[in-house]
Model the fold of this input.
Amino acid sequence: MNKTLQVRELETEFHTPRGVVRALHGVSFEVQDNEIVGIVGESGSGKSTVVRSITKLLMPPGKVSAGNVNFAGRNLLDLTEREMRQIRGKEIGFIAQNPFSALNPVTRIEKQFANIAKAHGVKVDASERSRALQLLESTGVRDPERVMRGYAHELSGGMAQRVVIAMALYLNPQLVIADEPTTALDLTVQRQVLDTLRRLTVESGRSMLIVTHDLGVVASYCNRVLVMYRGNIVEQGLVEDVFVRPRHPYTISLLNSVVRPEDETQFVPGDAEAPDTAEPEAPNPSTVQLSEARRS
Ligand SMILES: Nc1ncnc2c1ncn2[C@@H]1O[C@H](COP(=O)(O)OP(=O)(O)OP(=O)(O)O)[C@@H](O)[C@H]1O
Done:
């Protein structure tokens, strides 16, 4: 299988007035063609810092201090902001948690699609417009014509996130990176949006890297999972392997904290606490049920 993205020994620091915070300690992983990789871990473990470092969307005082991010034959960390802008949108689509932060409040949605095309030298004609309409429709936007002519503030959170997804996919990027894309949405809409994302990425030959705090999302949608703890990937592998036979104490604690014995096939969102033991415990047998459910 070919690698869409290869991250090697990524180190990121935040230079704060109170000193240097080392947020990533040599993070390495790959995203293969045609797969969805999930990043999980407790709040502050470094999930967003990973995706923002890769896409060079890290805000000061954050700074990547070492590593390689290989994508389409280049190390993204060597590129200028101008070069990176050409890659973002066209080759890598990025979806942030808050759709309204990605949408321009004073520009009609159709103009925002046209601006994306123009910024990447794509001629905006009727066929491009109809492609935007089709994408909106496939993300579940009802009445795409009306949405195209409207503004972001006229949209609900769910509709706005679908518009952002359609924009992220507009120029057919090989890789989609999503940072908690559905956290702000209610559960039914979450599932619809994730189904759409899956359909429009891996089922169309693309790959996706998705940050989530929700292990249910990983179980249902991801092929592989990266488990982060305090700036390190402590465990990674196929979802069925990691969730059935977790090896690291933190993964075990994370899984135990969200699997309810009375509802063994379903994960529920929950905050995981770091383990205070260094020795792995036996995995919770109920996690095995999850894998069975996923395969069926
Ligand atoms: N602006 C900042 N200034 C200083 N330190 C920061 C800043 N942003 C992040 N960090 C540090 O980087 C670490 C990782 O943060 P990050 O936001 O990547 O975690 P996360 O796993 O995405 O958390 P969450 O699930 O809450 O979004 C934090 O624990 C914090 O120490």
